[in-house]
Backbone:
């Protein structure tokens, strides 16, 4: 006897956003993503080993919390540039960024920008082109606008609430009927048990070293799901907008729908979300 799967729980309808604001935000985010892609492409790997690592937020390439938590001049320069542009064009929207923290009242603002100037900085320092620039405009319903620049593949991915997902301006069609077997699942910091269960399901796990690009692969249909154990809001906000506009579901560790979970998240194409969630939790 075949047991029908339960329908996936749904998020409440997202808050509407003024169409003019969406258009202006998407255009500004796209410009900033293009700027960032040029800088990252021109400097990829350039600082690797050039300077001794120094903890803090001074100049040069250094580390923060640990020797693998890199920060570079490119991180700082791109975030400062992003903040200058957004302050001029959207003065009432605070900014939250990886390198310079949150503007005053960002936690309570109706809308805020969230930026990661280089997601995958360790890859960037090593000259490995799996790194990205991520920017999102976030409200109470989650990311309303999101862009992810993928300089290694010459792509700018962009989405806005209700307007779909585009790669270099070309609409991306959702994958029709995905299955787990024979597919890829992206993950960051995956637990060994999860990797083993995915292999037993005849699928593969890929760790890219960039949370933004891991989630983006689901939006593109290159992977059927992405599982992230640890991340920050700025790592994933832009890519989650892409994924939702591409038709993916976003769930927290307990399997509840959440536009931007904390403490673990699953992004999956709807047909496989339940199966991947079971693999995640064994």
Residues:
């Amino acid at each position: 006897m075949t047991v029908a799967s339960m329908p996936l729980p749904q998020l409440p309808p997202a808050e509407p956003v003024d169409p003019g604001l969406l258009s202006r935000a998407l255009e500004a985010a796209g410009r900033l993503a293009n700027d960032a892609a040029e800088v990252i492409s021109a400097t990829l790997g350039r600082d690797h080993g050039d300077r001794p690592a120094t903890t803090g937020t001074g100049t040069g390439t250094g580390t923060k919390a640990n020797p693998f938590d890199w920060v570079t001049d490119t991180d700082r320069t791109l975030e400062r540039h992003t903040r200058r542009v957004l302050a001029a064009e959207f003065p009432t929207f605070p900014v939250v960024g990886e390198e310079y923290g949150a503007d005053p009242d960002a936690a309570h603002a109706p809308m805020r920008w969230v930026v990661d100037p280089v997601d995958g900085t360790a890859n960037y320092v090593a000259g490995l082109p799996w790194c990205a620039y991520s920017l999102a405009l976030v409200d109470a319903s989650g990311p309303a606008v999101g862009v992810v620049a993928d300089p290694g593949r010459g792509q700018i991915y962009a989405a806005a609430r209700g307007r779909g997902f585009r790669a270099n301006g070309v609409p991306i069609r959702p994958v029709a009927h995905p299955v787990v077997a024979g597919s890829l699942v992206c993950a960051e910091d995956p637990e060994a048990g999860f990797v083993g269960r995915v292999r037993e399901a005849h699928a593969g796990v890929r760790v890219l070293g960039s949370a933004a690009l891991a989630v983006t692969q689901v939006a593109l249909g290159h992977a059927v799901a992405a599982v992230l154990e640890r991340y920050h809001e700025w790592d994933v906000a832009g890519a989650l907008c892409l994924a939702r506009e591409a038709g993916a579901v976003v769930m927290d560790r307990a399997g509840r729908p959440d536009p931007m979970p904390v403490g673990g998240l699953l992004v999956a194409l709807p047909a496989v979300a339940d199966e991947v969630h079971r693999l995640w939790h064994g």
Summary: The first strand starts at residue 62 and ends at 63. Residues 19-43 form the longest helix (25 residues). The helical segments are 19-43, 73-89, 121-126, 192-200, 211-220, 233-245, 273-281. Residues 49-59, 63-70 have pLDDT under 50 and may be disordered.
